[in-house]
Amino acid sequence: MRHIGHLPGGQARIFSDFLFSRGIRNEVERESDGTFSIWVRDEDQVVSAQDLLTRFSTEPRGTEFQDASEVAEKARAAEKAELEAYKKRIHTRKSVFPNFGSYGVGPLTYALIIVCVIVAIYSKLGTDREVLRHLFITEPTFGDSRSLPEVWSGQVWRLFTPMFIHFGPIHLIFNLMWLYQLGCMIEARRSTWNFLAVVVITGLASNLAQYFVTGKSSFGGMSGVVYGLAGYVWIRGKFDRGSGLFLDPQSVIILLVWLVICYTGIMGPVANTAHLVGLISGMLLGGGAVIFARSQT
Predict the structure, then answer these.
(1) Could you tell me the pLDDT band of residue 83, with boundaries at 50, 70 and 90?
(2) How far is CA 56 from the centre of its chain?
(3) Which fold has domain 2-89?
(4) Which of 93, 185, 267, 286 is the most exposed place for a label (fewest CB within 10 A)?
């Protein structure tokens, strides 16, 4: 913002309106001697404003200057109306709903994190195979049969327990970080039951897909569920602003790029099918929730 000159009170107001009517944003500031300083906001408009000030100083009662107040008043009113309309249209994470961090950890999010940590401790971060064989979707000795004999014999928990297994600290921390962020949001803005439904469905879908596509049972991690939660929040937040859910574009890009990188094989053995199916199932759940919400309005 640049200072371009001084004018008496009445003239300062007229000239300020004149500048505004010409699209030159400005401010008027009273000085201690009773005069008013004229300030122009845009540096690129300073020269034009100075030329207009010179013209005004020569003939302050000119018609073009005297008529400017009415034009400026209408322009300000139109600008204010446009701003109010914009505020009603725009939807951002801060204006539509408060920061989800203020909600704290929901009970189910907390429980899932605790179980993951306990399993990590007891399994020595995925190195104790004696512990893991009770948590894999099926014991490795049956790994290539694709028949899930233990599940059919009543050990139904095996369909879900692979999500609690983590191989190493980075694997654990990365998944729990995303689980915390997404879980807190869904529990606070939808409900614990809503969150549970997404976890159960995406966890089941991702675990079964990983097993039946690869024929191997020695996989684990919350990643499939995390991708499912992300897909759910992404789609529902994008098409149902009233849901209170939001996943920023940067997070979407990070998750999708990571999915592609893992598929290249450079990260070593990764449950890629679980990631992909988790994401797709979460997106489908989000889309279904959007359709249901619209049918209720």
Answers:
(1) confident
(2) 51
(3) Alpha-Beta Plaits (3.30.70)
(4) 267
